[in-house]
Amino acid sequence: MIDRPQILTLTQWMHGAAWRLQLQHALDHHALVWVTRGQARATVDGIRRGVGAHNALAIPSRTLFSFEMGVQCFGLVCLIPPGGPTLMPDRAQHLRIREVNAQMELTALLDSMQRESNQPREFSDEALEAHAQLMTVWLRRAMIAHESPTRPNAAQRLVTAYSAMVACDYATPKLMADYARDLGVTPTHLTRSCRQCSGLTAAEMLTQCSLHAARVMLENGDDSIRHVAVQLGFRSAAYFSRFILHHTGHTPSVLRKAAKSKKAA
């Protein structure tokens, strides 16, 4: 959990591993992504969309998402702790900013934050917080000026509801069929809707979320593999190890050792 606004390039946000953004997952903090060059593809709340230059993507905390950068993609992301003075929208927003003045204004705010982060001075924390608040004022103004989004269809509403449930409950033994039952639909219908909206099946969305959490805990933490398995709702450490091996080609211990070696290098 971060305790102050942070500014990163999109490449830095990956922390050297594409899976950290490309797998479905939810953050404990808010994120505002600003793409200034190239193309990307984001899946937010189960809805896949293209993200191009001068697109802003606001992702509230605990929102399921993934982000795939194209080769020439460049931009910045501002990470904002929840519950503080910096206000973010309750729902994800995708804004295509066409007005040049609005583009320049957001870029200037993020550049100022980047300078404060790269060259810390007295009261840098206060300056970062102030810039973050101005940035979200910009965001709310852009939301008002932006064309109203089309009303989601039935499949999109279902997938968004499923994504919200997965973001909360992925670390439990619940299966995809359990989520479908809770949503009042058949697993086949849920899978069809997820594939239509995100390009992923319902089971793949759940698997990616579990896999992302597992890799973060293995590569960033020191909990035993058995403890990681328990925390993520796996019925045994052996089953957890087979899950990791199947989806990464490596055992949990190999992933952990490789991550530690990379950090030490």
Overview of this protein structure:
There is one protein chain. This protein has helices spanning 10-13, 19-22, 100-118, 124-145, 154-169, 176-183, 187-198, 202-220, 225-231, 237-248, 252-264, and strands spanning 6-9, 30-37, 40-44, 47-51, 55-59, 65-69, 74-80, 93-96. It has 265 residues and is an alpha+beta fold. It has two domains: 6-145, Jelly Rolls; 154-264, Homeodomain-like (Arc Repressor Mutant, subunit A, Orthogonal Bundle), CATH 1.10.10.60. The strands form two sheets. It has a five-stranded antiparallel sheet with strand order 1-7-2-5-8. The chain has a three-stranded antiparallel sheet with strand order 4-3-6. A hairpin with a 2-residue loop joins strand 3 (40-44) and strand 4.
Features:
265 residues; Jelly Rolls; Arc Repressor Mutant, subunit A; 2 domains; five-stranded antiparallel sheet; three-stranded antiparallel sheet; 8 strands; 16% strand
Radius of gyration: 19 Å
In one word, what is the shape? Answer: globular
**What's the average pLDDT?**
95
Count up the domains. Answer: 2
- Helix-strand pattern: EHHEEEEEEEHHHHHHHHH
Strand content: 15-25%
Which strand order does the major sheet show?
A: 1-7-2-5-8
Largest sheet: 5 strands, antiparallel
- The chain-level structural class is alpha+beta
User: Separation of termini?
Assistant: 25 Å
Low-confidence stretches: none
